[in-house]
Amino acid sequence: MKLALWQTAPTNGRIEAGFDALCMQVQAAAAAGAKLLLAPELFLPGYNRPDLHAALAQPLDGEWMGRLREVAARTGCGICIGWAERDGAAVHNAATTIGPDGAILGHYRKIQLYGAMEQASFAPGDRLCAPFRLEGLRVSMLVCYDIEFPGHAAALSRAGTDLILVPTANPVGFEHVPRRLVPARAHESDATVAYANLAGAEGEVTFGGLSVIAGPDGEQLASAGARGDALLIVDLAATASIPSRLRSGGGRDYRPALK
Question: In this protein, which residues make up the domain named CN hydrolase (predicted)?
């Protein structure tokens, strides 16, 4: 399967401009043969816009998802996107994957809310996303800070996940996450991890880019720079040629210490 990853500037509340830009990228990804495009965290309505999170959040069956499903079905390229989801009185920092046919394949609510703003805006999720099938792969999702906790990726690995999609909004100053932790999670989990970040400023927060797709050997399959938009497209079939000696045997060989 070809996977597309889009690094872009924050939407910053510009919903229609965000949809226009996203549609263009999905069309470009589809033209290149990709079956899924991964977009950043809280692309709708914006990450550093706590004034908009509750005000604009929508349910899973709302207008945003309806429009995204139509785009996916029309182009034949699925979409994984971060957004603000309303469920009754609660608002969640959510990620949803839509298949190339427009069907919702998976939905996830961020468990590890980062910092005072997220904790004030959102209710935390309480369960991981069960792996779903896409083009023969077992796929699941985490959101940003979640990938920094080895236990979450390990649980997805035990569930048989091949590909972990991570919409993110990682600020400048935390470059160790895409450079070191994401490749480490990929190797530990014997999975591919795709980490799509924002780049540029939204209010007083500047995001650090460096989006990356890391393979099960911990090596980069593709990466973006620290600034500006990027569209990465990777054929994940390349991971099949990684020698078994370079892939983690942790799931097979791990022996817990005696208490």
Answer: 1-238
3-state helix, strand, coil in the chain (%, to 5): 35, 30, 35
> Helical H runs in the chain?
15-31, 50-56, 63-75, 115-121, 150-158, 176, 182-189, 250-253
* Gyration radius of the chain over CA positions: 17
Whether the CB-CB separation of 134 and 36 falls below 8 Å is answered with: yes
Token code pair at residue 41: 């965290």
Is residue 72 within 8 Å of residue 60, measured between CB atoms? no
CB atoms within 10 A of CB 27: 15
Q: Which residues are catalytic?
A: 41, 110, 144
Phi-psi category of residue 163: left, alpha or beta, with phi > 0 → left and psi -120 to 50 → alpha: beta
Contact 177, 141 (CB under 8 A): no
Describe the crossing of helices 182-189 and 150-158 by its angle, rounded to 10 degrees. Answer: 30
Per-residue pLDDT of the chain (259 residues; tens, 9 = 90+): 999 999 999 999 999 999 999 999 999 999 999 999 999 999 999 999 999 999 999 999 999 999 999 999 999 999 999 999 999 999 999 999 999 999 999 999 999 999 999 999 999 999 999 999 999 999 999 999 999 999 999 999 999 999 999 999 999 999 999 999 999 999 999 999 999 999 999 999 999 999 999 999 999 999 999 999 999 999 999 998 888 888 888 777 887 888 8
